[in-house]
Amino acid sequence: MDVSLTLIIIMAVLFAAGVYAMMERSLTRVLIGFLLLGNATNLLLLIVMGTPGMAPFFGEESEISDPLPQALTLTAIVITFAVSAFLLALIYRSWQLGQADTVEDDEDDVALRERTDAEDEIIDDESTPEEEEATTDFIETATTPITVLHMKDHPAIHDDAPMDVPDGAHGQEDRP
């Protein structure tokens, strides 16, 4: 086996295990799955980087390595750390409030699961052809285009603030 093939297999296993773990209702398993996905992403970027080379210094004549995958790996590490800290805070708060870290179904989830296909078709058919052709959510609301007025154009406001005057137009200001 080649080293890169081994890394590809390990990366695929980490991705599969991470996605499987994230499908659970336990927040701890979601965290573990997210960490596995983060490590699999780092391995993917390591594989994409290709053959290692010298650091990209000015004046080096040898083969240099691509710095982009290295920067993306550092970014992936930071994002994984931040989301992991957020998930740990959610797990801790969930444990404080309910002594469990599982996400329970609420009433809307149960109602959505019990809805039949016939009810879905009825809900889809409730819209009128006028609503389907509309380009806005405000069907029967009269709209006018937005016009931008300068403060000097508004009749109720008297503005004494100095204005920018173009060169050569000094003394030709018309003030109300």
From TrEMBL:
Family: Belongs to the CPA3 antiporters (TC 2.A.63) subunit C family.
Span list, region Disordered: 115-137, 156-176
Localization, UniProt: Cell membrane
Pfam families: Oxidored_q2
Biased composition (Acidic residues): 117-135
InterPro entries given in the database record: CPA3_antiporter_subunitC, NUOK/Mnh_C1-like
Residue ranges of the TM segments: 6-23, 30-51, 71-92
Keyword annotations of the record: Cell membrane, Membrane, Transmembrane, Transmembrane helix
Alphabetical list of Gene3D superfamilies matching this protein: 1.10.287.3510
Lineage: Bacteria, Bacillati, Actinomycetota, Actinomycetes, Micrococcales
Domain of life from the UniProt record: Bacteria
Membrane topology, from the record: Multi-pass membrane protein
UniProt-recorded name of the protein: Na(+)/H(+) antiporter subunit C
